[in-house]
Every structure is written in C-alpha cells, then in structure tokens.
C-alpha cells in the first residue's frame, strides 16, 4: 500500500522513496494523496506523487468501495464546487445513505469527502495528461472530467499551486509519450504486478470479436455515447503499463482510464489481503509463487455477466444441448448477431458487445441457454438487476432461473467484490474476507496444469 509522507514545516507531501529527509517529528502520513491535499499539503516537485498508483485501501468498507466505483464512473463529474453538496447527496441516495453518513464514512476511512476525492482524481489525471500528451489545455480539462475551464483552472491552482499552462511548461522531456496514433498514457502501479498472469486470464476469457490478446498486448472495442473506440493495454515499465486509446473524442477520458485500470486490477492494491492470506497453508505458497497477482475486473459488467453465465451453463448438461455451440462459439454468434459492427480494426476485433436490450429481444430457437440469457438480459434492461458489487448482487442474479450461485459469485468477483467465492473449497471459510484474491490464485495455479 502506498503511504504518502507530508512535512508540516514545508507543506509538501511525498511518495515513498523521495530523496527528501525531513525530521520524523515533522512528518504526517496519509494513505491517499487526496487526503494530504485536503489537509492543505501540495505535491512534491521532485518525486511527483501524482504519478504513482493512488489505490483505495483494501480494508475500506465495501460500501465505500462501491461509492468510489460510482465516482470513477462519473457520479460527481461536471458539477461546480458550489454544488458539491448536491452531488454528494445524489451519490448517497444511490447507495441508500444520507449524505452526512456518506461523508462521515469517507472521512473515517479515506480522510477526504467524496467531492475532495473526485476532485483529486480529476486533477491528478489532468496533470498526467499535461505531462504525457500534447492535448490542448481545453482538451485536458474536459478529458479529466471538469465541467468548465474555470473549474479546471481553480482546481489545478488549489492542488498544484500553479496554472495548467505553467504545469505544461514545467514537464520533463522524458514525460512526453510519442504516439503514432491514439492517446498514450501510463497506467501506474505499485510493484509487484504480474502482467503475464493478468494477460493469460484475459486471453482465456476473451469474448470473440470484442477482445483479443496478441503477444503481450490486450485489445478491446469500446463505445462512448454510441461511438466506437479501441483500447490497447501492454507492458510499459517496472511501475506502469501503457494504455493506448483510440477514441472518437477526448471528453471524459478520465472514465476510460479509470475503467481500463479496473479491468486489469490496478484500482485495488491488495496489500492487506495478501499479508493475511500469506500465512494460509493453501494460499500462502501460491502467493509466494505469484506475489504480483491482482484481481481482474471488467470493462462492461453486462458482457461479463453474459460470459460467466454462458461458460457456467456449458458445464451443465441439462441446460446445454448437443445442438448448442460451445461457449466461445455461442458468444461469437451473440456478438455477430446483436452487437454493433466496428469495421477496420483488425486483431480479430469486429463488434461492440450487444446491449441488454438487444439480447433481451433475441430469438434463440428454444435453447435453454438462450432462454436464460434472454431472462437475464430482460432483468438487467428493466433495472431489476444492478450490476454493481454489493450485498444484493448475488441474490438478484441467482433469482434468474438458470443462473447458478457459482456464476453469480464469479460475476461479483469481476465486478469488485472482495469476498466472492466461485470455487468450492474445503478451506474457503478460512480466507474470508479475501476469498476473491484467494480464488484468483487458485485459478492461476489451475491454469499452469492445463
């Protein structure tokens, strides 16, 4: 877990490894850069803490993690600071809380209010865009989720004590990433991080036509407000991956970056989970073999739900007739028939994944598996199932006839639940509340024997 050190006498906060040597009695520590900024500290110009992974502590309550996911999804974007209370009230309502209780939970566990957390994430991404790209100041503002240039300028002065133009002029020569197409950004992480293992998982579960893995690069189609795009994620360095995004416009790039980070497990640094599981006789040796394993997330919750249900139904003869294509072939058929064509991409990418509405209207010739998918799609399209990690997710999914507990638990794992258990194991109760990470280690170990 990254811990930031703030020096009372200078008003500056640093990331681990900074060469500054302050007296320890003058140092405060924070788990989030946003918390240091909320306390009035500014980022060190030498170590530039905004360029490291700023993950939420893995011991934070799941309700706080759900709120963070909604913020990453844009729940507090665009609104001016003066309307922060209204934005937080709307966010709290979506979680079934009062705004006061939500702010108290954020303050107790993250050291910031929801609005301060969102503002810090926007400002940090904007600073990275100013360093790494040649986007105009205006493009950087809207790509980072700010609602106006005035709001953007004010936030950058408050967080970094400089205007965006001054920050762009101060960037280092080695920061700029030269691209022959698309927008290239670093995706920072705190080592260790096992990209080959993550890539193997993504390759095994890639949806034909939508995702592909070639060499050490993962690619997928995406859609922004109905317009197609392409993401490429590959190795970059000892402490970062490289994201290349081919997008129809730059507005809201922050959500693309955050969702891509969640997809490859960079949104959570499982330091506490790893430490506690490391002493387990079953999982401990697996952690020693793969200390950098992370929990894979998802780009599209609905596509992950469909994939999980299809793969699970294929293991149940009663729901998978001999006339039904094998799982990858069925997914490819669903994508080709109901997805949105995206021509000219190459790499086996041909379509965007179909919406719940499109699959709900599909005809599957009496297939039991098809009937399950139609019912699941109808429930999601109608809003009866909310595909967000939480207490009710597994219950709502298993209420759909044909959706097993195993599939529902796998979906919960991919959507960010920390204690999902799609694999039955006699020792699984010993792994609470970190069964998701334990499951990923078991799956990685099983993959080496197939």
From TrEMBL:
Keywords: Activator, DNA-binding, Methyltransferase, Transcription, Transcription regulation, Transferase. Its cofactor is Zn(2+). InterPro entries: Ada-like_dom_sf, Ada_DNA_repair_Zn-bd, AlkA_N, AlkA_N_sf, AraC_XylS_family_regulators, DNA_glycosylase, Homeodomain-like_sf, HTH_AraC. One of its GO terms (biological process) is DNA repair. Residues 91-170 form the HTH araC/xylS-type domain. Gene3D superfamilies: DNA Methylphosphotriester Repair Domain, DNA-3-methyladenine glycosylase AlkA, N-terminal domain, Homeodomain-like. This is DNA-3-methyladenine glycosylase II.
